[in-house]
Structures are given as structure tokens and as C-alpha cells.
Write a structure and sequence with these properties.
By secondary structure, this protein is mostly helical. It has 12 helices and no strands. Helix 2 packs across helix 7, helix 7 packs across helix 8 and helix 7 packs parallel to helix 10. The protein is elongated and about 70 Å long.
């Protein structure tokens, strides 16, 4: 078999594996609040999230096009297929490590950092499309900050509206609403996260001269949507435990506020074709809601641990991507 074709097949397989892992790694964040408040039983939450993720992934492709062309130029990338395969292997490794330890790290940071690291290892720093790359980094940095602030504001408004209401009755009503908000958040997750694998596969096809534009082929969109949905169906209980219980004690009214905040930020990013970390956005939404509810009620130790992981993911993934490239380059 031709080496380039073999590499492309390996990339497609690894991209779908990455998307599958993303499903049980990141989707846990989307349903963590609804499970922790018992608005949804775990099995029902996972089935709902799997369906909504699939539907979200089949709806948009703008983020995928950004991934395809804004980090590096697939047509001018030296040894491009090896670079992409190395990036995928590095991102998969980091996702599995953080999942094992129950740390809600970012799959977005992992794959973007890994692509940059592998590309730099192959062709030097000049190979990066700095305008597009910086735009992506800005979105990854600003989105959790906006999520924290918006979560604080949303819950402050909710508190004001329901300040004279019976707490037990209010939480009972919000528990029902939370089923809807969890579904919306799962849908928005699919609109953004599944597109990253779509963009990587399309980039590989362009690098191998098997595809002539950044338009996402339908079979790529469908296969990535299925991989994300199947991954979601496996669940991610360690992440659910961290996001749903170790940041703060979540009640239905908190969960609805956090879900609406996270969904708004993620969908807004999808609408302007920018990849964001659903992990960062959802966790920051919960932190903002928690700070508005009661600052001392937030476990800032867990928040600090998560923040450290967020900060180190890009450079570690980049380093892993570079190492993976040097190893693969010996064989291809």
C-alpha cells in the first residue's frame, strides 16, 4: 500500500478514536450538573447526551474549517500526514491520562497544542499560521473568563427573581427545567467539539491531495458525529464526579444557571466558527454561579487544580506532539 494512503487511513482511524474519547471525556461535563442534582438518572442522561451530541455534530461545520486551515496551511506543511498523525496520538495520550486521574482537562487545548508542537518539530516556528492560531488561542483563553462572569450575572439575576420563593418548590421546578438545559448543553457541545476531528480528517485529506477544499465531506461529518455519540454513551464518571460535586454543592437552580451560561458561550463560539474548550466553559460557568451563590461554598482547591491542568495542557500537548513526530518520522 502507498505510504501516504496508509498514513491517511491511520489518521482517519485515530481522529475517530480521538472523537470517541472526547465523547466520554468531555461530554461528562455537559451532563454533570443534571446527574449530581438527580434531575436525570445517569443512564438517561448519557442516552440523551449521546443523541444531542450527534444532532449537534451534524448541524454545523464552521469550526471544522477553522481547524483545517487556521493553525497551519495543509498544502505547505512539510511531512504533513506524519505531523497530523503525531498530533492525534499526543492528544489521545493526554486525554487518557487526565481522564484516568479524573481531571477535567481540555481536549481542544490538547489537539490544538499537539498540532502546533508537531508542526513546529517538522518545519520550525514559521510554519504556524500565526493570525489564525492566535485567534484560536484568544478564544480558548477568553471563553472561560466570559463564562465565569456570565455565570455570576445569570445566577445573580435568578436569585433576585426568586428571592421570595419557597426554596424547596423552586428547586423542584428547576429540576424539571434542568432536563431541558442539559439537553441544550449537550447539543451545543456536539456543535463545537465534534468538529475538531472533522477538521483534522479534512486537513489530512487535503495534505494527501485527496480533497481540494476545506469543505467538510459528508462521510467525515457523519463518522465523527457517530464517534462522538458512541463515546458519549460510554460515559465519563470520574469527570462527572469532579465537575458535578467537587467544585461546589450543586442544586437544580445552580445547575440551570450554569447550563444556560455554558450553552450560550459554546454556541456563540460555534456561530463565529471558533473552537473553545467545553470543559473550561462549563467548569467556569459553575465557578461563576458558585461565587454568586456563596464564595465560601466553592471548593477553590479543586478549581486551582483544574486551572493548573488547563494552563499546562497546551505546552505539554505541544511537547508530546513534537516527540511523537520525531518518533514517527523515523518510520515514515
Amino acid at each position: 500500500m502507498d505510504t501516504l494512503l496508509l498514513l491517511t487511513i491511520l489518521i482517519v482511524i485515530c481522529a475517530l478514536v480521538f472523537d470517541f474519547i472526547n465523547g466520554f471525556h468531555d461530554t461528562a461535563n455537559a451532563i454533570a450538573t443534571s446527574v449530581s442534582t438527580k434531575a436525570l438518572k445517569p443512564r438517561h442522561a448519557i442516552i440523551m447526551a449521546a443523541i444531542m451530541n450527534f444532532l449537534g455534530a451534524m448541524t454545523f461545520t464552521g469550526v471544522a474549517k477553522t481547524i483545517t486551515k487556521d493553525i497551519v496551511n495543509p498544502y505547505t506543511l512539510d511531512n504533513g500526514s506524519v505531523v497530523i498523525l503525531a498530533a492525534l496520538l499526543a492528544a489521545i495520550a493526554w486525554n487518557l491520562i487526565t481522564w484516568y486521574f479524573g481531571i477535567p482537562s481540555s481536549s481542544s487545548h490538547a489537539i490544538i497544542g499537539a498540532i502546533a508542537g508537531a508542526a513546529i518539530a517538522a518545519s520550525g516556528f514559521a510554519t504556524l499560521n500565526y493570525k489564525g492560531f492566535i485567534k484560536i488561542i484568544e478564544a480558548l483563553i477568553l471563553s472561560p473568563i466570559i463564562a465565569f462572569v456570565l455565570g455570576f450575572i445569570v445566577y445573580s439575576i435568578v436569585k433576585l427573581i426568586f428571592k421570595d420563593s419557597n426554596l424547596a418548590k423552586t428547586n423542584k421546578r428547576f429540576r424539571r427545567v434542568q432536563i431541558l438545559t442539559a439537553a441544550i448543553q449537550s447539543y451545543t457541545h456536539g456543535t463545537n467539539d465534534a468538529q475538531k476531528a472533522m477538521g483534522i480528517i479534512t486537513m489530512a485529506l487535503m495534505t494527501a491531495n485527496l480533497h481540494k477544499s476545506d469543505t467538510i465531506p459528508f462521510w467525515v461529518q457523519l463518522s465523527c458525529a457517530l464517534a462522538m455519540g458512541l463515546g458519549t454513551s460510554i460515559g465519563g464518571w470520574k469527570i462527572i464526579k469532579t465537575v458535578g460535586g467537587k467544585i461546589m454543592k450543586i442544586r437544580p437552580v445552580n445547575g440551570v444557571s450554569a447550563d444556560l451560561t455554558g450553552a450560550a458561550i459554546i454556541f456563540g463560539a460555534t456561530f463565529i466558527h471558533l473552537p473553545v474548550s467545553t470543559t473550561h466553559v462549563i467548569s467556569s460557568s459553575i465557578l461563576g454561579v458558585g461565587a454568586s451563590h456563596r464564595v465560601k461554598g466553592v471548593n477553590w482547591g479543586t478549581a486551582k487544580r483544574m486551572l493548573i491542568t488547563w494552563v499546562i495542557t497546551l505546552p505539554i500537548a505541544g511537547t508530546l506532539g513534537a516527540i511523537a513526530f520525531f518518533i514517527l518520522d523515523l518510520f515514515f
